[in-house]
Amino acid sequence: MCDLVARTGRHQQRYEAGCRLVAGCIPYRYRKSIDCTSDTDEKIVEVLMINSTSGSGLLFPKGGWENDETVEAAAVREAIEEAGVKGDLKDLLGHYDFKSKTHQDEFCPEGLCKAAMFALLVREELESWPEQSIRQRSWLTIPEAVESCRYPWMRDALVDGFLKWHAVNSEEAFD
DSSP string covering 53-89, please? Predict the structure, then answer.
């Protein structure tokens, strides 16, 4: 049984200039390559994606940034609630604008959102988590994730944010 409970409601939601503020992350890990033709221990980076509850395609965990938390805390919370993972929050990958069809309200009638996306090095996969009954998680290689990404803005966060960041910051592999 999961002791954690997902936050619900909009009463603590942050807004700025007509946009709902969102926090999320690209959870990642390293695994050793199983290439038998090589003597080197090549590391493969994988990212964790979750299913959408409103259609096909996969997503990275993200959700509303609330008034009683930092943007970093919101990103960590969303990773636990939606994907059931904990880890080390690394750098901010960037801010990504998108339009939500499902989250239009009186503060944001157009559904405009701005997401702060972070890299999260996964250290633990929880056996139970708040949204496990509605979410399935999948570890994917980068090419698989690019292909499976439901939203263009998340694909941009992966390619223009995470991949560029990782090219410079991959020294923690297997530490």
Answer: SSSSSEE--EEEPBTTS-HHHHHHHHIIIII-EEEEE
